[in-house]
Amino acid sequence: MFERYTEKARRVIFFARYESSQFGSAYIETEHLLLGLVREDKALTSRFLRSQVDSIRKQIEGHTVVREKTSTSVDLPLSNESKRVLAYAGEEAERLGHKHIGTEHLLLGLLREEGSFAAQILTERSVRLDLVREELARQPHEGTRKGTGASALSQLSPYVSELAEQTRSLVGRENELGRLMELLCRLSKKNPVLVGEPGVGKKTIVGALAKRMAEGNIPQSLAMKTVSALDLPPFRALEKDGSWYERMDRALVSAADDGAIFFLNRMHDRPNRMSPVAPNHVTDLLQRPIVAGKIQCISTSTPATFAKWQEAGHWLAEYFEPIEVTPASQEMALKVLDSIKPVYEKFHNVLYAEDAVADAVRWASKYIKSGSLPGTAVDVIDEAGATAQLKQPAMPDEIVEIQKRLNFIVQRMHVSIANHEFEKARFYSDEERKERNNLNELRKKHKLDEIPGLNVCREDIQRAVSKLTGMPIDTIQ
What gap in Å lies between CA 288 and CA 294, rounded to an integer? Predict the structure, then answer.
């Protein structure tokens, strides 16, 4: 649903999700969007708030009941007010004749949701909807200013995703993360490749970097940069004039000029295949801008594959600096599982016994040879949790029906927003709120939230390892 958003606007929403998690909120509220806006676009907020920016966080903190922090790996939903803000932002972009939805439209959307806490904060500081509209109408839109790279990112949007939201929390690996930042700060030989066996957590390290960038806890030279996962097709049939590759080349360089660092998972591991209709491979597309120093990339590889590139003298080995990522020890893997256990418990509605988690690490290390710790142990507890779900009692029919209606309503609301049918989107938003209230009442009626999660014990872990390895259960000790 964020295809039309500029990079800055997307980052506002990401920051809002982060702020929401820090307050322990179950939803991304309008005040979290405002904090994201203040954090991401200081030029815009300073123009209308001047010296009052610093007081906004204090006011929000004083108004909010702070609960236990939510893991940043949890995908928090937008509140109904926030959904309406995004719908209003789309309307404001249309009103101003702008193709992309930028941070200024988000500001207008916050002001239009008059009953929200964010609108109250802005109004108290004399920020008025009509005055902001008038001021913005005289200024160039974020998506059309030279150097923002909005059009480039729009063209890349089918292949780019936000990395910080895709990975779990990092435990250990501080040395590898530090080395990753060092290489990205270099003037030359500045493209890192994390080299390690499957399961060691290479992608998690890059995700931790993306989160640090979002939080601002990074060296100054990386302060205005972002890391985005790039998933280009392994090969693509060229148009007759070859313009697809030319456009992608320009888009990559333009986005890099705006601070984008691209992450290509297993780029080095892709075989050098050729399409019968197109002789170009994804590495051919990236070679020119990487060699010319016009874009920065982070990649991953296995030791055996990277060694082959080095022996062959391939440009991938020459222009990517390796960072070794060794398998985690059992002690470190146990710490990793302890840190992510609440996420899997919440997802599967189970409780993992302490000895079960320890057994998952021990048996994964002993019996699963297709990967490395901690990844193999994570697979074990995930498998055990999925199996436990099958033991849980079926939901009452009336709850199943209301969940079906909710899924339909949410789907229609997203379609309406994507089609700019904002009146429909508001209607579905109101319907969603009613159905969620009904669902909460039914859950109380059936006391579903009082039912403890099923316990995952040693025997469940044993069965999971047996399924993953094909070994008889009684041989797993």
Answer: 9
